[in-house]
Amino acid sequence: MQFSSVVTSPMLLLQLCISTLHYILASVFSTVCYWRTTSPVVDQRKVRNATTPTSVNYHFTRKCNYKCGFCFHTAKTSFVLPLEEAKRGLKLLKESGMEKINFSGGEPFLPDKGEFLGKLVQYCKQDLQLPSVSIVSNGSMIKETWFQKYGDDLDILAISCDSFDEATNQLIGRAQGKKSHVDNLHKIRNWCQQYKVAFKINSVINTFNVDEDLTENILQLNPVRWKVFQCLLIDGENAGESALREAERFVISEQQFQEFLDRHSSVSCLVPESNEKMRNSYLILDEYMRFLDCREGRKDPSKSILDVGVKEAICFSGFDEKMFLKRGGKYVWSKADMKLEW
């Protein structure tokens, strides 16, 4: 009965088709509008005038064997790009004007016991012929055989050391069992001298070391640069509900930081970085090769340079090039130009 009424009523069938078509078109229209309002609009003028990524910090792993309480790039994932994909991204950066690459983590010597890192260092120096290739490490995983294999292609090795008092290092979390972080630092310093790699020290000044005087030890080690950072809070990394660290107890004031700097004013290689200088003056790539924007006190990722290219991704980096230059981000960073006495 119902079938026959539909067949004998073509107008009813036409109305049914029209209402169905209206429903489909309305669904498509609302979806398109949602995409347009939620996807970031890329200003093509900004893309054309994008910052040149002269110096890039690639944190290709978040995993680490230390538990520094103030760490601002924590082990939230265990992801590491396949080697060839990482190389593709590095090549894109070189083609966009990169002169210096710094590999960091996490602990960059962890993946494949330093072989992954070594192959990236070798690729950047031999294939891409970058003027400067550097590494920041806690030093605990470095072996002399690594220097023998890859040392020629490395310009600068920075080792993190916040104190020459082992008890302080234990309090901070810059330790692994009963191994001496300080003894290892001296051993690596000697290897850098032997294998002609410029040696650098990074220190984070916090509540546990702010009153120390490191002058004598720094002068003895004689690094090409001693980078001194004020402990920095980053929401989602070392502060806030989703953070893996609680760094509030490590934070010092601007005055305390300045007093530390004044105490070490005789150290000529000292390069100070307050929170203001540090926050937006680094081009940071995460493990997915996304630039991280820290302007809002957290790390907001761009799209990956592997997906959208360097120029588009860098527009969302929040990079402050003027502060980069003001803090001394551009310096003699190729060991061939340092005229060091090995």
From TrEMBL:
SMART domains recorded: Elp3 (SM00729)
Is the keyword Signal in the record?
yes
- Cross-referenced InterPro entries: Aldolase_TIM (IPR013785), Elp3/MiaA/NifB-like_rSAM (IPR006638), RSAD2 (IPR026372), RSAD2/Viperin_antiviral (IPR051196), rSAM (IPR007197), rSAM_sf (IPR058240)
| BP terms from Gene Ontology | defense response to virus; innate immune response; positive regulation of immune response
Membrane topology according to the record: Peripheral membrane protein
Which Pfam families does this UniProt record tie to the protein? Radical_SAM (PF04055)
Q: Which SUPFAM superfamilies match?
A: Radical SAM enzymes
Keywords recorded for this protein, A-Z: 4Fe-4S, Antiviral defense, Endoplasmic reticulum, Immunity, Innate immunity, Iron, Iron-sulfur, Membrane, Metal-binding, S-adenosyl-L-methionine, Signal
In Swiss-Prot or TrEMBL terms, this protein is called: S-adenosylmethionine-dependent nucleotide dehydratase RSAD2
Signal sequence interval, chain numbering: 1-26
GO cellular component terms, A-Z: endoplasmic reticulum membrane; lipid droplet; mitochondrion
The family classification in the record reads: Belongs to the radical SAM superfamily. RSAD2 family.
Localization: Endoplasmic reticulum membrane
